[in-house]
């Protein structure tokens, strides 16, 4: 159909009941783009209608070098999404009932993540938008709809999706910055590092509820200690210097309010790429790093927490530990084992969000409470072994226990937001002031027993799976609470997790494959067919999805209260 056909339809249904909008679903050819109306909302207050605007590449005119590898493709798609968002902001608003006149594209925040909102390839550029079809009461506002389709959408294409009207320097800045970030992350393990913080990085954020960089004269740019400063040669930016955090056990110490947790938070977000100007563009962390914390009240399903907790009263089995209401220590133990099970080379911990009795038992407490009376093997007595036997490093914010000096390979002191390498000083203190605490536990390696998901508890027929916000998924009559899964950064990632759970339940849960094996199959599909593949709207507008990491999908499964394994 043509744009004229669309206009005729809108004239015909003007003033009719809202459901007559359903007649618009289909494909329409405009001068510079093809409009796909994939889904029409049922009433003005329902979830927005879904449309796709596809511009042939010979019109959009983006040269292949701007998207000729995965890094550049994600970067260009992200840039264009933000470009379209900026055009939408400038459009006049329409009056009407409910969501009338709303136009939305899922642009994301400070991170650059693969999204379903934009597709760029050799054939076309496609933007996926959500719109509120206008109405007065429950009656169609045909003239308002004509403004959206015949006036606003061509403006969005012209100003937001055609290279000739965009800032080419900004495009290349986006593309090359993301390519450099991915390259740097790929080099960390080759250099024996788990993280890198660039000189000049701006770590503090605007506020506790804003992820934007703090600005003003009091902001202290990051500056590496000389002893930890290293150089990288990036493909586009050239030479960059900063602090390399080595593999092994690293402590971040210092007084309160001197930047310990700020540094750790930047590192935990360093698994993602960031937009130019964020300040954390070159705070880069190994891609599989997992933030660990205590999580009172979470459910645990048959997790072997015996490396940390055993000999519980009443002979409770901790090799297949299950509870509906975990304590701080059992939840933290389970979080570590689950992270190892799905795959990680770096654990991130902050004593402020850890269970004290899980982290340390000092010499005095050991004297008062004999080991045979204490089921917990504290993390301090496993942390070096995790690196030696499992190749898993740890970065730990510690302000209250110098006992960790004995097990640390590197100690970074934060003072007035500046880092200092105090490793040697900490080692000397450890020698001078002996704690006399006994190492608890044994030297047996931590061996992970793969768990196999069962179909029971994952059936989704007739159930709604919907993201409520960044940290909650509605799964039928249950809610998956992800408040403490701290490396989720976007509601659209949570949307995608819900779709992935639906996808694996219908396709890959065979009661033979482990959690890790199943998720690897899903990610293989995503890399080969695109993020859209997990959506129930595959082939159309798939909804607002952003790619979560495999680690966060596993975390959601583990927090689903009906999830069962063998």
Automatic annotation (TrEMBL):
SUPFAM superfamilies tied to this protein:
P-loop containing nucleoside triphosphate hydrolases
As given in the record, the signal peptide range reads none
Residues forming the ATPase of the ABC class N-terminal domain are 4-163
Q: Which residues form the ATPase of the ABC class C-terminal domain?
A: 169-449
Q: Which InterPro entries match?
A: ABC_ATPase_C, ABC_ATPase_put, ABC_N, MRB1590-like_C, P-loop_NTPase
- Coiled coil residues, start to end: none
Q: Please, which domain of life does this record's source organism belong to?
A: Bacteria
Provide the MRB1590-like C-terminal domain boundaries: 464-566
- What name goes with this protein? ABC transporter, ATPase
Q: Which organism encodes this protein?
A: Thermoanaerobacter wiegelii Rt8.B1
């Amino acid at each position: 159909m043509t744009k004229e056909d669309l206009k005729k339809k809108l004239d015909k249904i003007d003033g009719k009941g809202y459901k007559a909008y359903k007649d618009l679903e289909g494909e329409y050819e405009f001068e510079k783009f093809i409009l796909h109306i994939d889904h029409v909302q049922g009433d003005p207050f329902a979830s927005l209608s879904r449309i796709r605007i596809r511009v042939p590449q010979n019109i959009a005119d983006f040269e292949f070098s701007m998207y000729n590898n995965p890094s550049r493709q994600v970067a260009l798609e992200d840039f264009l999404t933000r470009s379209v968002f900026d055009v939408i902001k400038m459009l006049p608003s329409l009056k009407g009932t409910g969501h009338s006149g709303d136009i939305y594209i899922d642009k994301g925040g400070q991170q650059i993540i693969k999204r379903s909102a934009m597709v760029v390839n050799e054939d076309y550029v496609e933007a996926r938008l959500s719109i509120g079809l206008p109405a007065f009461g429950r009656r169609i506002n045909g003239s308002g709809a004509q403004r959206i389709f015949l006036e606003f959408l061509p403006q969005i294409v012209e100003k937001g999706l055609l290279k000739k009207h965009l800032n080419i320097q900004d495009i290349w800045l986006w593309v090359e910055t993301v390519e450099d970030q991915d390259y740097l992350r790929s080099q960390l393990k080759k250099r024996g590092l788990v993280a890198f913080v660039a000189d000049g990085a701006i770590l503090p954020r605007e506020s506790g509820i804003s992820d934007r960089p703090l600005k003003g004269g009091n902001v202290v740019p990051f500056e590496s200690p000389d002893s930890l400063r290293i150089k990288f040669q990036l493909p586009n930016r050239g030479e960059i210097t900063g602090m390399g955090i080595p593999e092994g056990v690293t402590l971040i110490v210092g007084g309160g309010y001197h930047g310990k947790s700020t540094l750790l938070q930047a590192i935990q977000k360093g698994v993602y790429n960031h937009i130019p100007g964020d300040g954390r563009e070159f705070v880069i962390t190994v891609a599989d790093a997992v933030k660990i914390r205590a999580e009172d009240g979470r459910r645990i399903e048959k997790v072997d927490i015996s490396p940390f907790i055993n000999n519980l009263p009443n002979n409770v089995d901790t090799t297949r530990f299950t509870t509906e209401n975990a304590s701080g220590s059992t939840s933290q133990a389970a979080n570590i084992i689950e992270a190892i099970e799905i795959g990680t080379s770096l654990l991130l911990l902050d004593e402020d969000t850890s269970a004290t009795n899980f982290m340390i038992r000092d010499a005095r407490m050991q004297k008062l409470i004999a080991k045979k009376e204490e089921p917990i093997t504290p993390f301090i007595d496993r942390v070096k072994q995790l690196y030696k036997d499992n190749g898993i490093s740890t970065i730990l914010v510690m302000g209250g226990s110098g006992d960790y000096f004995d097990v640390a390979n590197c100690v970074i002191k934060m003072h007035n937001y500046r880092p200092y390498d105090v490793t040697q000083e900490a080692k000397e203190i450890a020698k001078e002031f002996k704690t006399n605490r006994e190492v608890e536990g044994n030297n047996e390696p931590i061996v992970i027993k793969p768990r196999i998901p069962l179909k029971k508890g994952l059936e989704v027929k007739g159930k709604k799976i919907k993201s409520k916000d960044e940290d909650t998924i509605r799964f039928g009559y249950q809610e998956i609470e992800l408040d403490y899964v701290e490396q989720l950064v976007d509601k659209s990632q949570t949307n995608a997790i819900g779709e992935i759970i639906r996808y694996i339940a219908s396709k890959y849960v065979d009661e033979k494959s482990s959690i890790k094996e199943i998720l690897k199959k899903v990610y293989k599909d995503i890399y080969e067919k695109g993020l859209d593949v997990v959506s129930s709207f595959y082939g159309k507008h798939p909804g607002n999805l952003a790619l979560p990491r495999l680690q966060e999908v596993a975390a959601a499964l583990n927090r689903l209260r009906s999830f069962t394994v063998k």
